[in-house]
Amino acid sequence: MPLKIETFSNVTGGSSYFKAIGHPLAAEPAKALLADLRAAGRVAVYDPLNMLEPFDEIHHLTSVDVVAVYAQDVAKIGQPLLGRPAQPVTALAGTAVDAVFVAAFDAERLVAHIRHLIPASATVYSLDPLKLPEELLTDRRTYLAPLNFATNYAFFRDGAGHHTRVVTANYWSSYGAAEPYLWLCLFGEDGQVLARWTQELPGADGTVVIDSAAVRRKFDLPEFTGQLFIHVVGAAGHDVVKYALDTYGDAADTLSCTHDANAWPSDFYAGLPAPRADERVILWVQNSHPCPIPAGAVALNLMGHDTAVALDREVAPYATYALDVASLLPDARWPQQVEIRAGKHFVRPRYEVIRTDAAGAIRHRIAHPNVERVDLKPDPKLATLTNLMGKGFILPAPIFPASRFRTIALPTPMGTTQSHLPLTAIVYDADGTEVARRDLGRLSRDHETVFEAADILDGKSLPSGYGHLELIYDFAAGENDADGWLHALFRYEDGVSGHAAETSFGAHMFNTVLTYKNEPQSYSGRAPGLSTRLFLRTGMAADVDTLCHLIYPASTPWNARSNTALILMTKDGEEIARRTVTIACSGSFHFRVGQTFTSGEIKQAGRDAYVLIRDTTCRLFGYHGLIREGAQGAFALDHMFGF
Predict the structure, then answer these.
(1) What is the per-residue pLDDT for 11?
(2) Is the CB of residue 162 less than 8 Å from the CB of residue 249?
(3) Strand, helix or coil at 447?
(4) 79 vs 189: CA distance, rounded Å
């Protein structure tokens, strides 16, 4: 069964309450609170702020002798709470109970309101024992302030020649944070804590790196596969923890990167590819809560099919389980795709594709599925806005040089009500010229339509050698099907090394001053977002270069060319060098850091340097990656993050 907790609202944003009751430091105090309530005897529960049922979902009050439940809101009276009809809190007076549990943080004022109703002999309990230490709070006046819970999880592994590396920037100080730092907790595969520590952050926009190999050495740990809990203490501006996760290996043929975990557990995820005949697809199920995932609570089904197969095993609190897709769906094959019924038990997960190539080499790549929305319905108004919003929603993706790379696309339904996807694919050269397009038709939810950029080009070439692909809605094929949540998986195969990388993302409106439902999105402030600030981390070793593909999509015609600065920064946020490039509207720009800046500049920038991509004239969409040259060299690719 899905957890009955609110994690994210597209109106109000992320919930901090579920983070507060599920924080690793709240787990033991919650157990102690439950033990006290069990020992207290007869317990009355008061739920003034609608926090009771989510607490029960995570920590389970079934062992407590709850004799009555009370509400403050008149509308809640008579409604079921913990399986009992809620009574007015005024009825608490004279009730024979040994304890009163007030299901709220900062409960002193709430208790004062009902002190005259509480039996004199009753002990009062609240959620306050679960509160984090004051030194971990950004806003000490309002415990559930979102900035107190700027947290996220990362897949974290070190062993068998595989390592992981979380890389981000201290963008919080750019928003005024004085001395933010990281509180970190590493969980092993069984969910037990392997290490806890704090890490200082550099100055504003400085690089933040957490490397699994360094962590393992620091704490003298055995090999591990688990998850890293990241808490930014003293955050400002953003309660969202964004990062790039690099997976690298001792061997040259292991390299991958993926986006952050998206810190709000969802009911569904989609865009998980079924394996090819020579592949295994492992879904890393990583419990985000201090309660077990019950057997049968997580399930997989082929997209567009109702029959789901459940994982018939429990996953311990904060534990990690490697779910082989074939164990539940043995007949699933690419280009079929899999829907994940996650029940809000974990944040956006990682999946790992393990492929044995023709030479017998085993190659790994890691990517992520995306949140499948349960709150969306088709928006017929989108079809009427083409005169104002032009192409409207655009999903852009790079096309790498066809002489070396295959560029493959698989549209992915990302809303539970999305029964059809009416799509057109357009190919643009780097100079913004449309080279080819193809109407893909009205794809059904269970479609298996995969195509290559070469298919759309149909023998034509890209004069620049590279370009980009845009997926847009085809309203002629289905004017009532679009919902604004257009996604696709993009896979790139290297003809030299045999390695592959893949990424998935969703559409946005780009570069139009008109706004529609918070589009074009802005990283900070209100829509429209018409400027660019992207983080490009650099290679981790001398033989690893950083690649980047910047795309300038435009829903309506915008500035003819961008004015884009590529700024090489030290890990402490000091500028070393910059280059200026201009990208044509509807065009793109592909570059390598090692070819854009001189070896002297890169040496001066030092270890853990990064490139800040800044443009005040337009919004660019970027993809970043790492690449090792050579016959066995791997490469990695995913979409970038901005701040």
Answers:
(1) 58
(2) yes
(3) coil
(4) 40
Indicate whether this model's pTM tops 0.85: yes
pLDDT confidence tier of residue 13, bands split at 50, 70 and 90: low
Q: What is the pLDDT of residue 532?
A: 96
Which of 432, 513, 415 lies closest to 467, judged by CA?
432
> What phi, psi does 31 have (nearest 5°)?
-65, -40
Pairing state of beta strands 66-71 and 43-47? parallel
Question: In the structure encoding, which two tokens stand for residue 174, read together?
Answer: 């750019």
Name the nearest CA neighbour of 589 among 616, 554, 624, 556.
624
> pLDDT value at position 59?
96
Distance between CA atoms of residues 123 and 105, nearest Å: 17
584's CB contacts (< 8 A; 6+ apart) are 430, 431, 432, 552, 560, 561
Categorize the per-residue pLDDT at 510 as very low, low, confident or very high, splitting at 50, 70 and 90: very high
- Radius of gyration for the chain, computed over Cα atoms and rounded to the nearest angstrom: 26
Considering the chain, what is the average pLDDT of its residues?
95
SS (H, E, C) 486-542: CEEEEEEEECCCCCEEEEEEECEECCCCCCECCECCCCCCCCCCCCEEEEEECCCCC
Residue 156 near residue 226, CB atoms below 8 Å: yes
Q: In the predicted model, is pLDDT for residue 578 greater than 90?
A: yes
**Do 298 and 342 meet the contact criterion of CB atoms below 8 Å apart?**
yes
Burial 244-264 (b: 16+ CB within 10 A, else e): bbbbbbeebbbbbbbbbbbbb
DSSP-derived letter for residue 416 is T
Task: Provide the β-strand partners of residue 309.
Answer: 300
**How far apart are alpha carbons 350 and 286 in whole angstroms?**
9
Kindly state the DSSP code that residue 34 receives in the 8-state scheme: H
Contact by Cβ (8 Å): 126, 102: yes
The C-alpha atoms of residue 183 and residue 618 are separated, in whole angstroms, by: 36
Q: How many CB atoms lie within 10 A of CB 219?
A: 12
Where does residue 48 rank: exposed (0-12), middle (13-18), buried (19+ CB within 10 A)? buried
DSSP result, 313-343: S-B-TT-EEEEEHHHH-TT--TT-EEEEE-T
Instruction: Tell me the average pLDDT across 342-364.
Output: 90
CA quadruple 292, 296, 300, 305: dihedral positive or negative?
negative
Say which amino acid occupies 366. Answer: I
Mind listing the pLDDT tens digit for each residue in 224-253?
A: 999 999 999 999 998 999 999 999 988 777
Lookup: tokens for 232: 């930014």
Q: Are 253 and 247 in contact (CB under 8 A)?
A: no
Contact (CB, 8 A) for 459 and 469? no
